[in-house]
Amino acid sequence: MTGKTNFQAVAQNCSQFDSRLSLIKSSKGDDIVTCLICNHFKEGFCNIDKYDPILSNLT
Where are the domains of the chain? Predict the structure, then answer.
């Protein structure tokens, strides 16, 4: 998976995902969920340590 895909996959599987923005709509009309718009994701890192464990379970 690429970095962008990783952020989306992790956010979709994270029980603590908390969007700081209204969700962005894809061209299909679906909401795009990504770590990049999560309140817990600051300066490129998940500040509640969910990113790495979720990613490792997905791969």
Answer: 7-57
